[in-house]
TrEMBL record:
One GO process term, biological-process aspect: galactose catabolic process via UDP-galactose, Leloir pathway
Organism phylogeny: Bacteria, Bacillati, Actinomycetota, Actinomycetes, Micrococcales
Cofactor(s) the protein needs: NAD(+)
Any Pfam family the entry gives: Epimerase
Family: Belongs to the NAD(P)-dependent epimerase/dehydratase family.
Domain of life: Bacteria
Protein's organism: Microbacterium esteraromaticum
Entry EC number(s): 5.1.3.2
Domain NAD-dependent epimerase/dehydratase: 3-254
Record's protein name: UDP-glucose 4-epimerase
């Protein structure tokens, strides 16, 4: 039996694939390669090239590879861009998830781990986000992820009395960084680490947007979580589903305390040996002072823990990016 990883040629998905293999499970990748990299897929892992919107392709992959569950990582992940491209975002994230659930039902596949997002919370008015914190997504991207969670819930109810009732969980996380494999790195043009790394590789000075936030050092504070830890939590969730063990509908994969942008920049200087003082720009509209989540529930059920220091997050990400040339 195998697990289908949608978006398995992407930064996070490729780490999930490796974590599955390390756990003795058989991954199969489904990816349209719109942002994924074929080189991120190990040679011994099957790659089905195509879109999650292609119902026949998805169902065929589930049947051909005797899939027992899906880890659904594929999606359009750019919150800011989703404001300009809402219909595209909904097509990829909402319709794509619907198609996967429909194909799973037809193929008799009952387990799914959904890669959700902390964007479902929007800008929370609490210091520490829990699973029960109010959901107020502030972008089409966040809305699409919340709708995905609703669809899993509703399909679970609808199939409860069937031969293959849907078992599911959604994993919400914030800023994923670093690398657990020197051949896989973050290729996003919108994430902090790759933006900083590209600036340094091009001889430019990274920027900080706003240093007057209500935080200890004036820069905003976020959850930064290592991609290796994220991948491990997905695998633990998959194993729990497959074993029929109790599982929550959603987990926050949070750090509990967070890191500031300045702390990240200081770590970059220490790790890379490149001395720089970040330029200061104005705040970006809508950026809150602090968004940090607790990971206590995931720690209880999914062996969730922060295994990497901030310097290790930077070092592993920097080494993987430099290996790419």
């Amino acid at each position: 039996m195998s697990w289908l990883v949608t978006g398995g040629a992407g930064y996070i998905g490729a780490h999930v694939v490796r974590a599955l293999s390390a756990a003795g499970l058989t991954p199969v990748v489904l990816d349209d390669l719109s942002s994924g990299q074929p080189s991120f897929v190990p040679e011994d892992v099957a790659l089905v090239e195509g879109s999650i919107l292609d119902r026949a392709l998805v169902e065929g992959a589930l049947r051909e590879h005797s899939v027992e569950g899906v880890i659904h990582v594929a999606g359009f992940k750019y919150a800011g861009v989703s404001v300009q491209r809402p219909l595209h975002t909904y097509a990829q994230n909402v319709e794509g998830t619907r198609v996967i659930l429909e194909a799973m039902e037809a193929a008799g596949v009952a387990n799914i781990v959904f890669s959700s997002s902390a964007a479902v919370f929007g800008t929370p008015d609490v210091d520490l986000v829990t699973e029960d914190t109010a959901k107020r997504p502030a972008s089409p991207y966040g809305e699409s992820k919340l709708i995905g969670e609703w669809m899993l819930r509703d399909q679970g109810v609808a199939t409860a009395a069937s031969a293959t009732p849907l078992r599911h969980t959604s994993l919400r996380y914030f800023n994923v960084v670093g690398s657990a494999d020197s051949t896989v790195y973050d290729v996003s043009p919108h994430n902090l680490f790759p933006i900083v790394f590209e600036a340094l590789l091009n001889g430019q000075t990274p920027s900080i947007f706003g240093n007057d936030y209500n935080t200890p050092d004036g820069t905003n504070v976020r959850d930064y979580v290592h991609v290796g830890d994220i991948a491990a939590a997905h695998v633990e969730a998959a194993k729990r589903l497959a074993a029929g063990e109790p599982i929550e509908p959603a987990y926050n994969l949070g750090s509990g305390d967070g890191l500031s942008v300045k702390q990240i920049m200081d770590a970059v200087v220490r790790v890379t040996g490149i001395e720089f003082v970040p330029t200061m720009g104005p705040r970006r509209p809508g950026d809150p002072d602090r968004i940090v989540a607790t990971g206590e529930l995931a720690a209880r059920d999914l062996d969730w823990t922060m295994r990497y220091t901030v310097d290790e997050m930077v070092r592993t990400g920097w080494e993987a990016r430099r290996n790419a040339g």
